[in-house]
Amino acid sequence: MARHKKRKDNRYIEFVWITDENGNKKRKAIYGYSMPELNAKLAAFNAGSTAPAPIPTVVYPPEVKRVCAHTVASWSLEWLDRFKYDIVPNTRTMYELMIKTHINPVIGHMYLGDVSAEDIETLLGVHKKLGHRRTAQKIHRTLSQIYGKALKLKYIGENPMIDVDKPIYRRPKKRALSSYEISLVHSADFTLKERAFVFTLMYTGVRRGEGLAFNRGDFNMREGIVMVTKTLYYEVNAACLKPFPKSEAGDRDIPIFDVLRPVLAEYMLSLEGDVLFPSSKGDYMSLAVFSRFWNGIKAKLVKAGLKSEGLTPHLFRHTFATMCMRAGIDLKTVQHFLGHASAAFLAELYLHYMEEGGEDAIDRLNAHVFKTVVRRLENGENAL
């Protein structure tokens, strides 16, 4: 049996072969701070496990604890691999980007215990001076978790992040479509599929991934509800189905409002398969296919009179939330419709629309849409 040599960061390494989604073979490195740890990881890999192997208890020498044997680079990647393997793909990608692009090139060579609050403040200060406050905030969030876990595992004696203030970042105000712009959406020359997709986004408030993950069976037309239970995300170009929404609050039922029902009913009559918004092959859209589909929708919206700036699927989610608030639907109900875990976040965004409830939420929004959009279209009007 081959002997494994220690690297300079005190880790053992073994290379294995994996096959990616395109059938290409690639080498993957597996690390361990001891042979039992490395062998456990290799055994898990050979057994076909996607989760990290249980790590055997290893007693590290005091001097290893003191300097941690970890550089920021080695621990940040280990942290990502061991503790963030099952998080939402977009969030994992964000952590990976912060680590590889912004953190490791600057302080990655330093031992964990040697990094001071001043070092981190200097790193964050570069981005704040450039006006990249959102990036600085993400770096702070990533380092806080990296160092928090290192402290919990007693790899370090002190956490320098305690003395580093979180950068202030104010989210830009989100735009919602006006009643006039919504009437333009209604008048756009869509295909049945395009109209069904846009109306589903605008009158359910679902996220893009939730909308693309819909199957025919998610819509109970008899009961008048749509069930949000899963989401679609992309790894490079490939569509991947996650069998649960973005958060626990994301698993929800939303009423099928009056303006949406006939659009869906007509579209479903033309639908052959089970996927509600399929590719030409009948499966979920790849990223490239969806991009072409959405670009076609954008072109028709612009032709109908909308400005091209900010025409994203999320614009219709924000429009739905704003319509709910304008209709006087209470905050807790809107929170449920949108699948938000925090009502406080919603309150911050839509405080100027909040009113006391009273009437039924479904009746309120149906009445609001009829009053502000449908009646205008029926009367041949295109302005407020």
Identify the notable features of this structure and list them briefly:
384 residues; mainly alpha; DNA polymerase, domain 1; hpI Integrase, Chain A; 3 domains; three-stranded antiparallel sheet; two-stranded antiparallel sheet; 9% strand
Task: State the fourth-level CATH superfamily of the largest domain.
Answer: Intergrase catalytic core
CATH class of the largest domain: Mainly Alpha
Can you give the helix content as a percent range?
A: 40-55%
Question: What is the second-level CATH architecture of the largest domain?
Answer: Orthogonal Bundle
CATH fold naming of the largest domain: hpI Integrase, Chain A
Low-confidence stretches: 49-67, 354-359
List the helices and strands and how they pair.
Layout: E1 12-19, E2 25-32, H1 35-46, H2 62-67, H3 72-83, H4 89-107, H5 117-129, H6 133-152, H7 179-187, H8 192-204, H9 208-212, E3 219-220, E4 225-228, E5 231-235, E6 238-242, E7 252-255, H10 261-270, H11 287-304, H12 313-326, H13 331-338, H14 343-350, H15 361-378
Antiparallel strand pairs: 1-2, 3-4, 4-7, 5-6
